[in-house]
Amino acid sequence: MSGTGVFPVHNNIFKINTAGRTTPGTLVVVKDMETFEPSIASKTEEWTPMDTAGWVRRAVTGKGLSFKFKGKRNYGDPGNDYVAKTLLATGQTVESQLEWTLPNGDKLLMDCVIDLKQSAGGDSTKIDTLDFELLSDGLPAYTASAGSLGVLTFVTEDGVTAGTTKIAAVVPVLTAGNAYYYRVNSDTPVVGEVLSVANGWAIYTLGNDIPVNNGNMLTLVETSPGIVTVKAGSSVAIVA
Question: Residue 199 in contact with residue 186, Cβ under 8 Å?
Fold first, then answer.
């Protein structure tokens, strides 16, 4: 959930475009990444004019942004596989896009190139490593958060069908033109985040049965057109 204050590092959300630099809807999380390290490189020009009594003047004339990621190799995960399969790739086949959602809801979208460092390996009793760097290609776009994520309050009840739960009412009520989406045992998305059916989100109509195990956490999200997150809430699933 977006807001102010201090947050753990895992509240940063990173997604990569598995279609390269086309079709923004294909942005997915690279699963099982453990660390990220942003770095800004500035190109600075210096000169010493006669009128500054020997004091150097400086101007930043260029910048570059990069992100180092290190984690585990997860075979079968679309984002993890996409990065790992750039092992022998060059040129346009390693060009992609990175979306970084900060804990306060701000977003950075940048064209990038993938510099794969390691797609396997390590001690025999460890998990295969995935180690890569994403380097900016041109000027990134930074978008400030539209505001804090709205809160949805609801409780679940037994569904009509065995092994299901349902939601009968939500406070506040659904805004005209918006829609509900749900996912089981999910992290709460940030305001402005675009949800994807490919990532397990499903559209929901109040009163419909949801297959789920008793005690699982159910996250309900209200989205504006384009499946953009505006409100969210979670509740424990009650199943007979």
Answer: no
